[in-house]
Amino acid sequence: MKWLVGKKLFFLNFKEVFELKTVAKNVYEAMFLVDSAQAATDWEGTGSLIKAILEKAEAEIISFRKWDERKLAYDIAKKSRGTYILCYFNAPTSKIAQIERDVQLSEKVMRVLILRADHLTKEDMEKETPIMIAQREGVAAQDKPQQSADGSRTEQAPHDSFVGRENIRQNPADSDDEKP
What is the C-alpha to C-alpha distance for residues 16 and 18, in angstroms, rounded to an integer? Predict the structure, then answer.
């Protein structure tokens, strides 16, 4: 096949013309669910496994971090707690099925949800996760004494004490008062 562009003559064969493809990469948000015990003992291994799955699918990772650890609504593979990992990445649309298949074949990752996230800005992707907020507030709560709504300091009752005993209804048979 001959193409004349300006004063230059280009020779292309049909195979080269049909192999020239532009691959558009979209932004995706993925939530990976892994066993909490496994994530706690081998965080680096779990993270590297997920990153390897994404890199195998030609994904460019934008953000990768631990989202939260929570009790599951129902047991998955006899596990009652799970650690969620939030990841934003660029990848070709054709590779999403490959990522989901690789996750299903993995023994470390229990579930994955991948959504298209073209509408999110960089600031949205960098927002604090629930675990970051809890850690920040935990440090702040240790530094400050507890305050009530009106701003006065309140003392916390010991954990084993019983607060509000005066509001308990007593059994009339147990009372010391005599009935007339």
Answer: 6
The least confident of 23-32, 83-92, 168-177 is 168-177
Residue with tokens 């099925």: 97
Domains and CATH numbers, the chain: 25-137 (3.30.70.60)
Compute the CA torsion angle 164, 167, 171, 172 (nearest 10 deg): 140
Q: Is residue 38 a contact partner of residue 76, using CB atoms and an 8 Å limit?
A: no
Whether the predicted model's global pTM rises above the 0.70 cut = no
* Maximum CA extent, the chain: 120
**Rounded CA separation 65/129 (Å):** 9
Nearest 10 degrees: Cα torsion 20, 22, 23, 27: 170
